[in-house]
From TrEMBL:
<dbReference type="InterPro" id="IPR006366">
    <property type="entry name" value="CobA/CysG_C"/>
</dbReference>
<keyword id="KW-0808">Transferase</keyword>
<comment type="similarity">
    <text>Belongs to the precorrin methyltransferase family.</text>
</comment>
<keyword id="KW-0627">Porphyrin biosynthesis</keyword>
<dbReference type="InterPro" id="IPR000878">
    <property type="entry name" value="4pyrrol_Mease"/>
</dbReference>
<dbReference type="Pfam" id="PF00590">
    <property type="entry name" value="TP_methylase"/>
</dbReference>
<dbReference type="InterPro" id="IPR003043">
    <property type="entry name" value="Uropor_MeTrfase_CS"/>
</dbReference>
<dbReference type="InterPro" id="IPR014777">
    <property type="entry name" value="4pyrrole_Mease_sub1"/>
</dbReference>
<dbReference type="InterPro" id="IPR014776">
    <property type="entry name" value="4pyrrole_Mease_sub2"/>
</dbReference>
<dbReference type="GO" id="GO:0004851">
    <property type="term" value="F:uroporphyrin-III C-methyltransferase activity"/>
</dbReference>
<keyword id="KW-0949">S-adenosyl-L-methionine</keyword>
<dbReference type="GO" id="GO:0019354">
    <property type="term" value="P:siroheme biosynthetic process"/>
</dbReference>
<comment type="pathway">
    <text>Porphyrin-containing compound metabolism; siroheme biosynthesis; precorrin-2 from uroporphyrinogen III: step 1/1.</text>
</comment>
<dbReference type="InterPro" id="IPR035996">
    <property type="entry name" value="4pyrrol_Methylase_sf"/>
</dbReference>
<keyword id="KW-0489">Methyltransferase</keyword>
<dbReference type="GO" id="GO:0032259">
    <property type="term" value="P:methylation"/>
</dbReference>
<feature type="domain" description="Tetrapyrrole methylase">
    <location>
        <begin position="7"/>
        <end position="215"/>
    </location>
</feature>
Length: 257
């Protein structure tokens, strides 16, 4: 165990489909002595680590935190100093609502080498899996990616600002705040804005609900949608080839009412 060179690689595991892991992520896992992993959509990804690598689950789910963030930071460093190469595996991209930068800063304060392997973020990949292009010429020239729940468990104040824009709005971790989100868009007179909610996107358990700002709460109830899910609000939802038929039918019903 002499000459251990501590190193930490922060790896994005992508949105859930194990095939959407990057080659760089696979290579990093193959060289891991320890893997600290979150509540991944697909734990098959852990098979890319050597059989003798230590695997430690440090995931957080609502109301159930295996470790606090400070404890995770310390675990990463302790394992690197003891065993060498630690891969810190996070869902999606580690720097998009993943607190990856805090983990890097903590490790670097000990002088440990850190490398970041970006992951395919569910912000873009999950809508794409339903044919939703979050930007589209002539329809949407930008998008907001917002966390539904801030560190003090409140809805981000950016949602109210986003509701005023013509941009596509993608909200992660927002299912518990959906009534508030709907309310903010209704205040901007956007009751007819298309909405898609995609649960467990890019995985075999994927579930979809589509509607408008006014109807989406009812859709969620009917389809029994829950977390983890992504909320996409914007005209681009209507543009998806997969969802076009729904909106054409939906609009004709609205007109005949």
């Amino acid at each position: 165990m002499h000459n251990i060179k501590p190193k930490i690689t922060l790896v994005g595991a992508g949105p859930g489909d194990p095939d959407l892991l990057t080659l760089k992520a696979v290579k990093a896992l193959a060289e891991a002595n320890v893997v600290l992993y979150d509540a991944l959509a697909n734990e098959e990804i852990l098979d890319y680590a050597p059989k003798n690598a230590i695997r430690i689950f440090v995931g957080k789910r609502i109301g159930n935190h295996a470790y606090t963030q400070d404890q995770i930071n310390q675990l990463i460093v302790d394992n690197a100093l003891t065993y060498g190469h630690v891969v810190r595996l996070k869902g999606g991209d580690p720097f998009i609502f993943g607190r990856g930068s805090e983990e890097v800063e903590f490790a670097e304060s000990f002088g440990i080498e850190t490398i970041v392997v970006p992951g395919i973020s569910s912000v873009v990949a999950v809508p794409a899996s339903q044919g939703i292009s979050i930007t589209k010429r002539g329809v949407s020239e930008s998008f907001w990616a917002i966390t539904g729940t801030t560190s003090d468990r409140k809805l981000s104040s950016d949602v109210a600002l986003a509701a005023q824009s013509s941009a596509t709005v993608v909200i992660l971790m927002g299912m518990h705040k959906l009534p508030q989100i709907v309310d903010l868009f209704q205040k901007e007179d956007k009751g007819n804005l298309p909405v898609a909610i995609i649960q467990n996107g890019t995985t075999t358990e994927e579930k979809l609900g589509v509607g408008t700002v006014d109807s989406i709460l009812e859709v969620v109830k009917q389809k029994e949608l829950g977390s983890p899910a992504i909320i996409v609000l914007g005209e681009v939802v209507r543009e998806s080839n997969k969802l076009k038929g729904f909106y054409e039918e939906f609009l004709s019903k609205e007109i005949t009412r």
